[in-house]
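Handout, page 2. Input:
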Amino acid sequence: MKNFLGCIFFFAISILHTYGRIARQTIGELKEFELSDIRLTESPFRSALLLDKQWLFSLNPDRLLSGFRQEAGLAQKASKYGGWESRGVTGQTLGHYLSALAMMYASTDDEGALERIRYSVNELDVCQQAFDFHGLFAAFPNARKLFQEIYRGDIRTEGFDLNGSWVPFYTMHKLCAGLIDVYHYTSDRQAYKVLSQLAEGLYALFTQLSDAQIQKILICEHGGINESMAELYSLTGDRRFLELSLRLNHKAFVEPLVTSKDELKGKHANTQIPKVVGVIRQYELTGNKELYDIADFFWHTVVHNHSYVIGGNSEAEHFGVPGRICDRITDKTCENCNTYNMLKLTRHLFCLNPDISKADYYERALYNQILASQNPEDGMVCYMSPLSAGSQRNYSTPFDSFWCCVGTGLENHVRYGEFIYHTDEQDNLYVNLFIPSVLDWKARGIRFEQKTAYPTSDTVRYMVSSSSGKHKFTLNLRYPGWAEDNVSLFVNGQRQTVCAVPGEYIPITRKWKDGDRISIVIPKKVTSEAALGDDSLRAYLYGPIVLSADFEGKNYSHFPMVVTDDIENASLSLKPAGKPLEFILEAARPCTIKMKPYYQMGGKPLMVYFEHYTIEEWTARKDEIMMKQDREKWIKEQTVSSFQPGEMQPERDHDFKGEKTRTGELNGRKFRKAVNGGWFSFEMEVRPDISQDLLVSCWGNLGDIYKFNVEIDGISIATVIIHWWGNTFVDKLYHIPFELTENKKKITVSFKALDNRSVAGPIFNCKIIKR
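Output:
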């Protein structure tokens, strides 16, 4: 963790100092080692790092700097890159580029990274001086005009723009973060100079404004600008930046978290997560317990109420109803930026309160989303981590994509040295990830090496090298919560008694000497995990590794389903296939299918969640279940009632009501919507004796203002955000709780905009279908 200022160690380690004996211990705060202390050795993680370096070094910094020169009135040395860099978010990639280069230098000592850093920082210095506006400068279009308007208190926003600029302070946060990382990892004084002047400019800008004006600015996505100001305080000791950081907390978002309220549904997920990273950094610098509680509640809420099996969250970039993802499993799940930021938040919280469950989450998200997000063939990265049946990853191109997840993707694969090792106030050692690596433990004068083929193997080996005699300390090995309760531990070939259980550390206290060897065998098991909201929709794991169906070489007419009378016992359904990490889903119907790790699927079609049926259900309903995948036929057979909005007679027949509504036609289909916070409702026939769902037809290529709740007789069943579902009509299925239709012949279906800026709809068709 950068800048350990604020890490106050307040618990003492209680250890039974018996040579070679295992003992329970109480853990105080921890701190990470520096990236420069760790070198990855041969593994998928090192391979990913090298692919990332190849891509980083292929980028032309002049193209990333082009917007800065343009806005500063200087001649451009090269054209801008494509994607967002040629649109309204010009410059956001440059910040990530600097961070990635700084961490690459720390991780590899490659002078090529340092040369690119120095060139880029010098160019930024030139641009900052030419821009000549209180230290401020930027690359996004009309930057000077925006800063001038804000100085005057002229602030206009619709959520994803500020005075017509697309997320300008999000981009400013990336620039600040890049300069902070450069200074942290390379001690570059010119970077510190540029950063200091930029921070002074931001302070001067915001000082002109009232709290109410600042809160209006914060409606627009602003990344972790509060974190950047907190880091400036840590670097300079200037309390002005801490005070500004606290003023930059978005009250409308933070205040519900203070009272432990989950009001995340409908919110753009990655807009929120960096705000909380800033809050936990503020806690580290102030000790204000309320700030810690906000971050801790948010972490638990997202991980336990909004996350998918791979550790990611959100669908089409937005949070949904708490405790319910089962009807939001699509090709737009788990934006990778979200998990990049959730892992940052996890690192902070873990150091403050070392809870194995946080390490387990970190490991799951690292393998199953972050490592999986990179194309193993060329190092490109994906925006979303899709989970729906038959979906596949869509990777960036080297020079034309440059989405937000390209920026974080440049960083993700050079950060793998983080979180492997931690230490405490007594200079004990904690091992949290099983990644082949070498730690240069300077405080002890020890070289600590980890070797393993994990997760292919269950065995992890460690070796201590020291030229300065014996060192007494406690080596704490993470015993994951997912592990079997029969771990085997050996020190110099002698078996040790293990008192710990899964979810704890295994502490080994002794005088360690040169050549000491430790090996641990942590057995994995197959398990299944239900999608939130539907116990019969389940994914399979082997230890922490999420498995996917592998359709390679197969042409399936139907996606597989699982037939078993014991869905909790995954070992009855899943059998080893004879190769490491590969299995056969023998309980699958209509035929068995091979399973392999999700992170190894690359760009191939995949499937993670499987519908589960009992043998009796399958026998009685096989034809119906199979028909479900013959979509058109299935919908026709399952439809209870149908409503066509936007047409006079159907709306009269269904008792249509509404406020601020509009009708129209798109691609030959009529629709109804409600604008400016409006709503509309209509009646639909239902069956009183069975469970039913609502099938809604939408157009998939709309924007973030299309946000609304779907209600049945006044009870919300879904929050919908129509955002980048594709340039096509999309049918969305929403489960209706049985108690809302039981003993009824009709229900009222309502679509209500989330706020005064939102639109409900447009809706092209609605059907009630049998579950």
